[in-house]
Amino acid sequence: MTFSIVARCPRTGQVGVGALTAMVGGGKLVSHARAGVGAVGSQATMNPYYGFDGLRLMADGVPAPEALRRVVEADPARSLRQCGMVDAEGGADAWTGEGTEDWSGHLVGDGWAVQGNRLVGPETLEATAGEFLAHPERELAERLLLALEAGEATGADRKGEQSGVIYVMDTEEYPLWDVRIDHADDPAAALRALVDEFASQLIPQVRGLPTREDPVGELARELLPDVDG
């Protein structure tokens, strides 16, 4: 009841997840990412520990394909799960259990994976991946959203979607983008409206926050020009 994309941007090193799902509030369970480590999308009869354990393994240097293999093998209910993983080097892989709802499947490429279940057919994933790959010059959040919009246009989930998420990590421990629609008749359109609003109003604020290298941050420096740091 979900289709999603996990990806890494080779220009910026950002990693992120985009997803649309038929359940309400799906973003908090589907999307997992950590700066400099990777991103995970966990779905179908989901197991959120694919995200937590997958990121822990990738943080320890395990490539995404091997990290995914380990978390899948450790799960007695793996046949019901679906998951995509990408690491900070662009390695990617996906899993679709044989017990997930038809049509289900995944596609994997260099730096990305798309996966979905209860879809109208493989055309949803093909459109999602194709649109993502068509815009390498754009910011990762925009590429993820364009990919979701393209997948949604094919019909996607046979019973429709209710929630969606765009989640992108840049260089810090807090996300650059965390846009969630928890319940909407058209979550793709609602995501688009909120992403556009965030781009103009919130993202400049996030970029001005303190970082590990700059504990003051540009926003505070404008108010305290003489502050040390």
- Outline the low-pLDDT stretches: none
What is the 3D shape?
A: globular
Element pattern in H and E: EEHEEHHEEEEHHEEHHH
Cross-sheet strand order for the largest sheet = 7-8-1-2-9-10
Query: What's the total count of β strands?
Result: 10
What class would the helix/strand composition place it in? alpha+beta
Tell me the CATH architecture.
4-Layer Sandwich
Task: Please write the CATH class name.
Answer: Alpha Beta
Rounded to an integer, what's the Rg over CA atoms? 17 Å
Strand content: 25-35%
Largest sheet: 6 strands, antiparallel
What do the pLDDT scores average to? 96
Q: What is the name of the CATH topology? A: Glutamine Phosphoribosylpyrophosphate, subunit 1, domain 1
| Total number of helices | 8
Give the name of the CATH superfamily: Aminohydrolase, N-terminal nucleophile (Ntn) domain
Oligomer designation: single chain
Give the CA-CA distance, first to last residue: 48 Å
Helix amount: 25-40%
Number of self-contained structural domains:
1
Tell me about this structure.
This protein is an alpha+beta fold. It has one domain (2-223): Glutamine Phosphoribosylpyrophosphate, subunit 1, domain 1, CATH 3.60.20.10. The protein has helices at 27-30, 49-59, 64-73, 123-133, 140-152, 187-201, 203-207, 218-223, and strands spanning 2-8, 15-21, 31-34, 38-44, 81-87, 92-96, 105-109, 112-116, 163-169, 177-181. Strand 7 (105-109) and strand 8 (112-116) form a beta hairpin. It starts with a strand and ends in a 6-residue tail after the last helix. The mean pLDDT is 96.
